Each structure stands twice: as C-alpha cells, then as structure tokens.
C-alpha cells in the first residue's frame, strides 16, 4: 500500500476539486483527467516546496569571555613546624572582551589564600584597557597590569613551568611580582630582519614590592623594556630582552634595577607534538640608595632548562643565585626539578622538589604538588 501525505495548505483546493469532480457526469472522461492532473500537480508542488528560512542569531554578543582557573596545591617544607599542608592556593576569574573597534578590556580577579592565616581574600590581579587601532604601530594600555620585566613577571604564575618563583625574583619583586597601576605605551619598531618592540611604562609604585614602594609625593616608577625576537630557523627562535627600572623605595630614596633575559626555544616542525627544548635565563642588578652616601648593589639570576619527554610530559631543571638587596653578603643558591604532566590545554599536574642553601642558615628542602584546571574561555599567554 502506498501512503500519500497531503499538505494541509492544499486541502481546501483538493476538497473543491473533489466536489467539482463529483458534480461532473460519469461519461466526462476528459474532464476527469484534467481534474486529476491538477490534483497531482498540487501534491507534487507541496512535496517539493522549500521551508521558509529561519532567522539566525547574530554572532555579535555583549557577554565577555569568562574563564575560571583553579590552583590546588600541597606542599612540604623541611624546616617548618608544620611540614605538610594542602590548600586551594588561588582561584582566578577572567573577563575579557572587545569593547568596540578601538579598545579591548581584560580583567583578572583572584581569590587567593594568605599563607600565614590560611584565609582567602579577593583582589584585582589585573584590569586594563588596550587600544587596537593607534597609528604608527603604537599600542596604549592603561589600568592595573603586570609590568614588562623580563619573561616571568608578565606571565601569570599558573602558566609557568615550575611552581615556586626564583629566589632572585622574589627578593626584588615579591611573591606577587611587579604589578601596578599606570600606563604602558609599546611601539613595534619597523625592523625587517627581526621582531623588535620598545615599551615605556609609568606606574604609581607597588607597596608590596621589596624593591619599590608607593611614594607620598610625585615620585613614580619608570620602566623601559626592549624586546628582540629572532627566528633562527624553522625549528628554533631566540629572544633577548633588556629592562631598566627606577622608582622610590621604603627609605624615601631611589632604587634602580637593570635586568636582562635570554630565551632559546627549539620545537621541530615534524616532531613538535612530542619533543621541544626551552632554555631561559634572567639576570637582575639592583642599585639601592637607602641612606645619604650609602648604596647597596646586589646581583641575582635564575636559569632553567626544560625538555619535553613525550606528548604530555615535561621536565624542568632550574638553578637560582641571589644576593639579598638589603645585604649583599647574604647569598642564596637553590636547585629545583619539576616534572609536569600536561593532560590537555585545560589541566596539568606538576611535582617540584627544591633544595636551598645560603651562608646564614642550614640547607633545607621543599616540595610541591600542583593541579591546575581551567573551565570556560581563557586566552593564550605570551609566547
């Protein structure tokens, strides 16, 4: 049996045709054929008729990209009274969107844990506007942002290949890094042989940084950074950066810091999913004026070598050397090794062991286990 489906739209026409057909004499075969042909044409037209196109939503949305990053850690310290601990170290919420064709907005809110009290507090880690269409390859950024000091400071800690921060970096900029409120102007220089960028930044002065503080007067923090990026081959790149910083310290005088960074990356085109090498180093020289006629010069550095063992496994070895900026006779040396399993771009697990020795206290040992997980949208960090 053959089933015929008739469009409801054509039922009235079909009904009228049937009535007309019934009223025609039985011997009018020619009229019957005409009516049947009309009905068949109407049914075929209804079967082949295309549905009316539905209206789709525009891709433009007024909602920002929202992402949440969790940082869960457990730690061991050999010389602490409480050797073992477990905690949610930090939760970061990112809100990022293009405001209009001229600027974009990026906000990063953190809910961090105080290591002394164990209590959590909310803060704005970064919140800034960035221009998108300035002439002459210029870009302006205003708000609160991580300053352009070397390679570590502009990067959020969860994106680093190790859990703790280098000793020399912490001695000068603290655990939170150099993160301040102000303005930043960058210029992509018109060089053809290699990538070159010049950055000038002026900020109010971060009160939690050991090297700088917020002045009660008009003494601001000034920074200049020159980035040089070279493509050595299809598989290798080299980056060289130079930074100069000057600003007020807690003695109501001036601290000057000169820094340099060097980064070599090897990532073969054919095996880039399974093998890569990164060698990165930073050097810091501090000139601290803390009293009339008294200046303390100190030096520090870190250097790490990261090797990708397999598609998801990374091994990072790091060496730290640091003099205390308030007493250069105190010298620290540290060695650390970090194994990282990068499950996907949304989660990773890292285990780090570190030993530190100085000329004041006995050697001690530390270890951390970190699990980073991401939900929602989160933009890529700098290369």
Automatic annotation (TrEMBL):
Keywords: Signal. Residues 1-22 form the signal peptide. InterPro entries: Porin_dom_sf (IPR023614). SUPFAM superfamilies: Porins. This is Zinc-regulated TonB-dependent outer membrane receptor. It comes from Ginsengibacter hankyongi.
């Amino acid at each position: 049996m053959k089933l015929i489906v008739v469009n409801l739209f054509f039922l009235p026409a079909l009904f009228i045709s049937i009535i007309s057909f019934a009223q025609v004499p039985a011997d009018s075969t020619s009229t019957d054929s005409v009516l049947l042909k009309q009905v068949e044409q109407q049914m075929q037209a209804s079967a082949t008729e295309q549905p009316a196109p539905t209206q789709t939503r525009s891709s433009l949305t007024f909602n920002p990209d929202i992402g949440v990053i969790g940082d869960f850690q457990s730690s061991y310290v050999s010389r602490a009274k409480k050797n073992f601990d477990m905690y949610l170290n930090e939760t970061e919420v990112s809100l990022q969107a293009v405001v209009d064709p001229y600027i974009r907005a990026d906000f990063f809110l953190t809910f961090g844990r105080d290591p002394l009290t164990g209590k959590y507090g909310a803060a704005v880690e970064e919140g800034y506007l960035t221009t998108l269409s300035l002439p002459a390859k210029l870009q302006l950024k205003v708000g609160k942002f991580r300053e352009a000091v070397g390679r570590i400071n502009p990067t959020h800690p969860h994106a680093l290949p190790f859990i703790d921060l280098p000793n020399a970096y912490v001695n000068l900029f603290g655990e939170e890094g150099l993160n301040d409120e102000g303005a930043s102007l960058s210029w992509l220089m018109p060089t053809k042989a290699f990538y070159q960028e010049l950055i000038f930044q002026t900020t109010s002065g971060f009160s939690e940084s050991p090297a700088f503080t917020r002045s009660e007067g008009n003494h601001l923090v000034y920074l200049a950074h020159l980035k040089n990026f070279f493509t050595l081959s299809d598989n290798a790149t080299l980056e060289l950066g130079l930074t100069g910083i000057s600003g007020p310290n807690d003695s109501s005088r001036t601290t000057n810091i000169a820094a340099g960074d060097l980064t070599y990356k090897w990532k073969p085109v054919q095996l880039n999913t399974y093998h890569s090498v990164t060698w990165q180093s930073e050097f810091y020289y501090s000139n601290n004026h803390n009293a009339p006629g008294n200046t303390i010069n100190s030096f520090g550095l870190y250097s790490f070598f990261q090797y990708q063992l397999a598609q998801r496994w990374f091994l990072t070895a790091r060496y730290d050397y640091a003099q205390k900026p308030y007493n250069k006779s105190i010298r620290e040396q540290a060695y650390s090794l970090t194994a990282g399993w990068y499950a996907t771009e949304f989660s990773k697990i890292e285990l780090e062991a570190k030993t530190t020795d100085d000329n004041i206290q006995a050697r001690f040992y530390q270890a951390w286990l970190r699990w980073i997980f991401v939900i929602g949208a989160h933009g890529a960090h700098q290369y």
